[in-house]
Amino acid sequence: MSTGTFDIGICFKKAFEVYKKNLGLLIGASLVGSLLISLTAGILAGPILAGLMVLVLKLVDEKDDAEFSDLFGRFDLFATTFLLCLAWGAAFYAASLILSPIPFLGTLAVIVLSGAFSVFLLFAIMQVVEQQQGFQAACKSAFELLKKDLWMLIAYGILASLAAGVGALACGIGIILTMPILYVLMAVAYRHCAVTGSEESSVDAPVEMDVKTAEPVVEEASIVPDEAPEEESPEEESPVEPKAE
Predict the structure, then answer these.
(1) Is residue 215 part of a domain?
(2) Which pLDDT does position 196 carry in this prediction?
(3) Confidence (pLDDT) at 204
(4) Is residue 223 one of the residues assigned to a domain?
(5) Calpha distance 223→220 (Å, rounded)
(6) What would the pLDDT profile of 119-129 be if each residue is shown by its tens digit?
(7) Phi, psi at 243, each rounded to 5°
(8) By C-alpha distance, which of 189, 186, 161, 165 is closest to 177?
(9) Distance of alpha carbon 121 from alpha carbon 82, whole angstroms
(10) SS3 for the chain, per residue?
(11) Would residue 163 count as lying in a domain?
(12) CA distances to 84, 156, 176, 211 from 120, in Å
C-alpha cells in the first residue's frame, strides 16, 4: 500500500537535472562499465555496478569529489555484489522463461518483473555500498525501503527502464546516451526512500511499555523524590550540676 511519500514526477525531474549537468561523465562511465560487463560475460557486473552507483550517488548529492575512477573503486565488494547480480539475474531469467509463453499476460508480467527486479537489485547494491551489508541484509534492507510504496516504485522502475531503452530505437547507438539515466533515476529514488524512511523511524519510534501493567516504563533515575526533612531530635538535657556553696 502506498503511503503517498514517493513522487515519481519529482524524482524524474531531479534525475534529469543531474543527468544534464553531468552528461559527459555519466556517458563515459556508463559506456566503459557496460563494455567491461559484456567483455567479462557479466562476471564483473557486481563491482562495476557498485562503482557506478558510488559515482552517481555522489552526483545526486552534489559532491565535488565525484570522478571517473569511482567506477573501479568497489572491487572490494566483489563477492557480495557478484552474488546479488547472479541471484537476481537467475531469478528474473527463470521467471521470464515461465511467463513468456503466456499470450499477452505473460509479456505484461515480464515487463512488470523487469521494473521490479531493476529497482530491487540496484537498491540492494546501494545498501552494500553505503551500509557495508552482506547479501541477505542488503536484500532485506532493499525490501524494507521499497515495501511502503512498492507498486509506485515498480511503476517507477518500468518507466526508468523505458526511458533508458529509448535510445535503442535509433539503431541501438542512442542507448549510449540514454542508458545512464536509469542509474541516475535509481539513485534519486534510493535517496528519496532512504531519507523518508529515516524520518519516519525517528518520529514513530516505539515507546517501551511495562508488560504487566501496559503502562509506560519510567526509569527510577529520571525522577528524584524530594528528600524528607530530617527530624530534629530533641536535645538531651544535660544534668544540672549543683552549685558549690
Answers:
(1) no
(2) 66
(3) 41
(4) no
(5) 6
(6) 999 999 999 99
(7) -75, 135
(8) 165
(9) 11
(10) CCCCCCCHHHHHHHHHHHHHHCHHHHHHHHHHHHHHHHHCCCCCHHHHHHHHHHHHHHHHCCCCCCCHHHHHCCHHHHHHHHHHHHHHHHHHHHHHHHHCCCCCHHHHHHHHHHHHHHHHHHHHHHHHHHHCCCHHHHHHHHHHHHHHHHHHHHHHHHHHHHHHHHHHHCCCCCHHHHHHHHHHHHHHHHHHHHHHHHHHHHHCCCCCECCCCCCECCCHHHCCCCCCCCCCCCCCCCCCCCCCC
(11) yes
(12) 10, 12, 23, 38
Residue 41: left if φ>0, alpha if ψ -120 to 50, beta else—which one? left
Written as nine digits, the cell of 136 is: 541477505
Q: Which of 221, 160, 222, 212 is nearest to 185 (CA)?
A: 160
Number of residues that this document lists for the chain: 245
Q: Tell me the residue type at 234.
A: P
Structural domain that includes position 119: 8-193
Specify if 145 maps to a domain.
Answer: yes
Task: Give the Cα separation of 88 and 138 in Å (integer).
Answer: 12
What integer pLDDT is reported at residue 167 of this predicted model? 72
Distance CA 148, CA 193 (A): 9
pLDDT in tens, 168-185: 676 667 788 888 999 999
Residue ranges in the chain modelled with pLDDT below 50: 1-3, 201-225, 228, 232-239, 242-245
Cell numbers for 35: 563494455
Strand partners, 209: 216
**Confidence (pLDDT) at 56:** 97
- How many domains does the structure of the chain reveal? 1
pLDDT in the model for residue 21: 95
